[in-house]
Specification:
Elements (H helix, E strand, L loop, with lengths): L4 H6 L7 E6 L2 E5 L5 E9 L2 E10 L4 H16 L4 H17 L2 H14 L4 H18 L9 H13 L3 H20 L29 H12 L5 H13 L3 H5 L6 E2 L4 E4 L10 E4 L2 H14 L18 H10 L11 H13 L4 H7 L7 H10 L1 H19 L9
Antiparallel strand pairs: 1-2, 2-3, 3-4, 5-6, 6-7
Length: 402
């Protein structure tokens, strides 16, 4: 007959182990010490086997019966319950070991091996730190969208909408890495895209009108601060690289005889080497700067240490001293200035301009086309742009044929 809770409670310890059957192979094994263990006897592929369900009363009679019924369902599907139980334990151990923190650290290590810049790694670490306290110790496969939203809302509450958006994106990258390594099945951040406040995009200020840009050039060429800062701003106008690419430039990257600047992949936004043609005017500025710093090391070292570059704040501060507010012009704005005026000239293909700006699309064929087919055009464009700069800052109107 099936067991009852009252009967089980009244069972006393005995000199020898004894079994009390509940039916369907389920029985209670009582040891001489009085321990009451749930077990199930069954046959699989002709062999007699035994399955353990736990200790009474931690595992109740109802729980034991459910475990027995689940085991019978597995047997009906020709699955050995003992093997399945071992697999379930392995899965739980792996799940407990694969926490968000563990996967996040592996993801960061992967980025480092892929050669991502230290600034990128630092930014990713900082973004992930926004959520580690909330669910970092949780198994990644168990984390829900609702859990992720909690720290994101906390970031939003401080008015940091862009940080919240980037944190969601970074957390999503960790989940996709977990999916790729078979430790998660879905990315819960996908459903949060519409839950966060979209930040207002503030484009970097830039002067894009030819006449106004001429005024900026005159101010730069007449800048009375340090020669190094004046030269850096002059080259920002001539070459319009990303500010960090110029500030961190090393003399080893320049071949003034051939008129090229090779920006290494580690310092470009796209993580691909970028070669820029140098006009005669740009080469002359570099030669003057070289006479000040020598031909080795940083092109624009800090006044405090030759081992450290000038900062972007240094360039922007110089623009402020010249009377240009942060809403009018930034060091990064030279890129938009050049792009606008070059495009408006109608003399150069948009693709050549984009290639010079190192704006590379996703099409691999198009990348190769940018680098190779447009090189001659970019060399001519660099020469034209240098002459236009001379014309704009001297208030002349000169159109140079290609």
């Amino acid at each position: 007959m099936p067991l009852t809770d009252t009967q089980i409670k009244n069972i006393k310890k005995q000199d020898k182990p004894k079994k009390y059957s509940d039916g369907g192979g389920l029985h209670l094994h009582v040891t001489p010490t009085g321990s009451k263990l749930w077990r199930m006897s069954y046959r699989y592929e002709g062999a007699q086997k035994l399955l353990s369900f736990g200790v009474y009363p931690a595992v109740s009679l109802a729980d034991a019966r459910k475990k027995r019924d689940d085991a019978k369902k597995l047997l009906a599907a020709e699955v050995d319950p003992s093997v399945q139980a071992k697999l379930d334990k392995i899965h739980k151990r792996a799940e407990a070991a694969n926490t968000f923190n563990v996967i996040a650290d592996e993801y960061l290590a992967k980025l480092k091996k892929e050669g991502k810049a230290e600034a990128t790694l630092t930014k990713n670490r900082w973004l992930l730190d926004q959520v580690r306290t909330d669910f970092g110790s949780r198994p990644i496969a168990k984390i829900s969208a609702a859990e992720i939203l909690v720290p994101l809302r906390a970031v939003e509450a401080k008015g940091n909408y862009e940080t919240a958006r980037r944190t969601r994106s970074c957390v999503g990258a960790v989940f996709r890495f977990a999916i790729a390594t078979a430790r998660a099945e879905n990315d819960p951040t996908f459903g949060l895209r519409g839950a966060l406040i979209n930040p207002v995009v503030n484009h970097r200020a830039a002067i894009t009108q030819r006449k106004a840009f001429g005024g900026l050039l005159r101010a730069v060429w007449g800048y009375e601060g340090t020669a190094e800062v004046r030269h850096a701003l002059m080259l920002m106008a001539h070459l319009y690289p990303r500010p960090g690419e110029l500030r961190l430039a090393d003399w080893s990257e320049f071949d003034l005889d051939k008129g090229v600047w090779i920006i290494p992949a580690a310092r470009t936004k796209m993580r691909r080497e970028h070669v820029k043609p140098l006009s005669a005017q740009a080469i002359e500025i570099l030669k003057v700067q070289q006479s000040l710093t020598g031909g080795a090391g940083l092109v624009f070292p800090s006044v405090k240490s030759r081992l450290r570059p000038i900062s972007e704040n240094t360039l922007n501060s110089a623009l402020r001293l010249m009377g240009f507010t942060q809403d009018e012009m930034t060091s990064h704005g030279f890129r938009a200035s050049a792009s606008s005026i070059l495009n408006e000239s109608g003399l150069w293909s948009a693709d050549a301009i984009e290639a010079e700006l190192a704006h590379v699309g996703a099409d691999l064929v198009r990348r190769a086309y940018h680098r190779a087919q447009y090189w001659d055009e970019r060399v001519k464009m660099a020469d034209w742009w240098a002459k236009e700069i001379d014309a704009m800052r001297t208030k002349k109107t000169v159109v140079v044929a290609r």
